[in-house]
Amino acid sequence: MTDDKPTTGKNPLVSGTPRKSRIPRLPHARQDFAASLVVFLVALPLCVGVAVASGVPAELGLVTGIVGGLVTGLMRGSSLQVSGPAAGLTVLVLEAVKAYGLPVLGVIVLTAGAIQIAMGLLRLGRYFRAISVSVVEGMLAGIGLVLVAGQLYPALAAKAPDSGPGKIAGLPGAFRAAFGDGTALASLAVAAGTVTVLLLWKHAPAKVRTVPAPLAAVGLAMLAAFALDLPVATVEVRGLLDAVQPPPLSAFGELASVAVLGTVVAFTLIASAESLFSAAAVDRLHSGPRTAYDKELVAQGTGNAICGLLGALPMTAVIVRSAANVQAGARTKASRVLHGVWLLLFAALLPGVLAYIPIPALAAVLIHSGAKLVPVRALAGLWREHRGEALVLGVTAVSIVAVSMFEGVLIGLALAVVKTAWEASHVKLEVVDKGAGPVDAHLSGNATFLRLPRILDSLESLPRDRPVRLDLTGLHHLDHACRTALENWAERHSAAGTEPVRVTAAQAL
């Protein structure tokens, strides 16, 4: 007798049993691979250019880009933004290298990275969003001005002065000297041609624009310099292993210097603010996961700590590379990790190519990048709508050019705090005088020391021969300076022979 019951085994060869669908493990591999190549081509000339402009070997810029891809790129935080050496820190790095030397730079970057990690673990990343946008934009504008002025000198085959004002003041003389020097004219022609390519590349045919503008501009400059045998300076190549010099233990003793600690604080604040503001900007470019600010700060700190140990440049998230990553169709962090792989392969297999890159072409790339940091159009609109914010932006930028990066940012922050306090301290004094009897004075709003002169001028103008009733119940805030000044005024007014000033205050005051 046969068994007519259906088979219930799980053998996939038996007809009628469901087959499990296979889910691809890397569903976005094609998009991320293509995006990584685009980011690599954008990052390569920028890494080299930032390093040369910072006064360090070109290979160290590639090291920072590699760490930004392979280390920071693997960590959690912002999945699509790309990290590496940034034009925004070029001025500060150059000042640090000139003042303390390359070994101490590694210590500064390592310490700044450790502080970033600590701030991320303490959940302080989100508070960087409370920094005035005008201060950050003013900081970037000041950096852009100094960067443009400083890079015009290598574009003219000339030596740049050390100070920001000196760079700007010396430009007319540098241009005059260039017109009598064949080498300077050749260098200027290469720089001008590079900038022209950068500006006009967006008008090229779509198929041509698959090559990023910075790479195309530098590549064409290389071909022109080689084909025409132009007498222009090129990048000096030392080799990746020779360029990487971990800081010696003796260099850590420099952390006892107040000046070095101030530079560490400047690196930390500027790199963190630039990275987190970049993350906010990148979040607006895509609809994927949002940035976890504290985790992103830990990731940036880890990358900077490793860069410091290798004696390389500091890193930040870079909006140019990040935007290129999103626009190229990246979907996951794999694209930024792969871009680090391509940088590593280039540095290991083709370092000799760097020796053919003209210095004025790299200077032109940074001039173009620096100019974009100066928000001329935004500043005009800001002046029409929010003059206080425009003033903060302008003062921060000018202070960075006139003094230094760290002091300029501090001045901008202080001015932003004063502006906010001034706007928050709205106070109104209403006086009711019926011609006879007591004079009623009502204070409302926020009474702070910033408005104290106005308050006292109004109170002291009241009749001295009449009693005054001062009503403070309308005040939301009364600081110590105002309280003391009002008490002193009341004593002086009462001493004039009239009735004592009667003060009515809210219970909270």
From TrEMBL:
Chain residue ranges for the region called Disordered: 1-23
TM regions (residue ranges): 33-53, 99-122, 134-153, 173-201, 213-235, 255-277, 341-371, 391-418
Domain of life: Bacteria
Keyword Protein transport: no
Location in the cell: Membrane
Domain SLC26A/SulP transporter: 31-395
Keywords of this entry: Membrane, Transmembrane, Transmembrane helix
Protein name: Sulfate transporter
Organism: Streptomyces monashensis
Pfam families, alphabetized: Sulfate_transp
One annotated Gene Ontology cellular component of this protein: membrane
Signal peptide: none
Keyword Membrane appears in the UniProt entry: yes
InterPro entries attached to this UniProt entry: SLC26A/SulP_dom, SLC26A/SulP_fam
Membrane topology designation: Multi-pass membrane protein
Biological process annotations from GO: transmembrane transport
